[in-house]
């Protein structure tokens, strides 16, 4: 039976005036606008402390897939015992037979793509084996410091990658979508951080188990990054039928 193609949801447009700039997503540059979200960032009502990598290393994975001329580079994290969220641009167009996730200790699990959103740049993977420890998705965006934690490969070995960040503001990000051909909008977080290529999909952790967002892109030529807010991630997960595989043939 043929697998369904992903359906692009209608882009959310904004009537607010925007400040145009340029960011890098994966291997490409996109132009987008930003406006501050309504209201100020809230004072934190949760414990804020530097995450202990030994506590979260069973929640964060390296995304593995081949296709589109190169292996994928990026991170994802558990939102349920068998579900991993990552960026859509990381998995777009990749060979489904090679799609997998890998823990820091190199334990590897086959993955099935079950959710894909062009506007939010989010993808959801189902893991039919393994038992991950999910992170908590916090809906508030406090003005705090934290650490974006990902997994990179160095000398053919996995290494934990930590990027310290400071929340600058919650923002509405207007951008061109995964394929740079739509008018897309998502609720995001602007952070001051040295985001680099390969940091996509890393959770923004403000303590051991609480994530306020997922790294989506970086600014060009200055230390600033952007993340999809956890509230958007939670809504995305609720919209996905995790029993149905999604095929995305087009490369980002």
Description:
By secondary structure, this protein is mostly beta strands. The chain has three helices and 16 strands. The chain has helices at about 55, 90, 230-240, and strands at about 20-25, 30-35, 60-65, 75-80, 85, 100, 110, 110-115, 120-125, 135, 145-155, 155-175, 185-190, 205, 210-220, 225-230. Strands 1, 2, 10, 11, 12, 13, 14, 15 and 16 form a nine-stranded mixed beta sheet that branches. A seven-stranded antiparallel beta sheet has the order 7-6-3-4-5-9-8. The model is unreliable at about 1-40 (pLDDT under 50).
Approximately how much beta-strand content do the residues carry? 35-45%
Radius of gyration: 17 Å
Helices and strands, in order, run as EEHEEEHEEEEEEEEEEEH
| General shape | globular
In this structure, how is the largest beta sheet organized? 9 strands, mixed
Number of strands: 16
Low-confidence stretches: 1-40
CATH fold label of the largest domain: Thrombin, subunit H
Q: How many domains, in number, for the residues?
A: 2
**Alpha-beta classification:** mainly beta
Distance between the termini: 26 Å
In short:
The chain is mainly β and 252 residues long. The protein has helices at residues 53-56, 88-91, 230-238, and strands at 19-25, 28-36, 60-64, 75-80, 83-86, 100-102, 108-110, 112-117, 122-126, 136-137, 145-154, 157-175, 184-192, 203-205, 210-219, 224-229.
């Amino acid at each position: 039976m043929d697998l369904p193609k992903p359906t692009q949801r209608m882009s959310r447009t904004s009537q607010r005036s925007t400040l145009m700039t340029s960011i890098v997503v994966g291997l490409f540059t996109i132009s987008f606008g930003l406006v501050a979200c309504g209201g100020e960032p809230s004072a934190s009502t949760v414990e804020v402390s530097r995450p202990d990598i030994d506590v979260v290393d069973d929640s964060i994975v390296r995304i593995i897939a081949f296709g589109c001329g190169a292996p994928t580079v990026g991170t994802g994290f558990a939102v349920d015992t068998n579900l991993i969220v990552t960026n859509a641009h990381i998995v777009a167009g990749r060979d489904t037979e090679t799609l997998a996730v890998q823990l820091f200790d190199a334990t590897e699990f086959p993955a099935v793509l079950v959710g894909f959103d062009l506007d939010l740049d989010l993808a959801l993977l189902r893991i039919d084996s393994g038992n991950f420890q999910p992170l908590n998705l916090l809906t508030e965006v406090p003005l705090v410091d934290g650490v974006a934690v990902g997994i990179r490969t160095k000398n053919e070995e996995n290494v934990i990658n930590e990027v310290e960040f400071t929340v600058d503001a919650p923002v509405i990000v207007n951008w061109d979508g995964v394929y740079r051909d739509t008018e897309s909008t998502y609720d995001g977080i602007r952070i001051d951080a040295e985001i680099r290529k390969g940091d996509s999909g890393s959770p923004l952790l403000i303590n051991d188990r609480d994530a306020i967002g997922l790294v989506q892109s970086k600014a060009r030529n200055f230390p600033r990054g952007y993340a999809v807010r956890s509230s958007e991630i939670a809504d995305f997960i609720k919209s996905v039928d995790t029993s149905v595989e999604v095929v995305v043939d087009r490369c980002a």
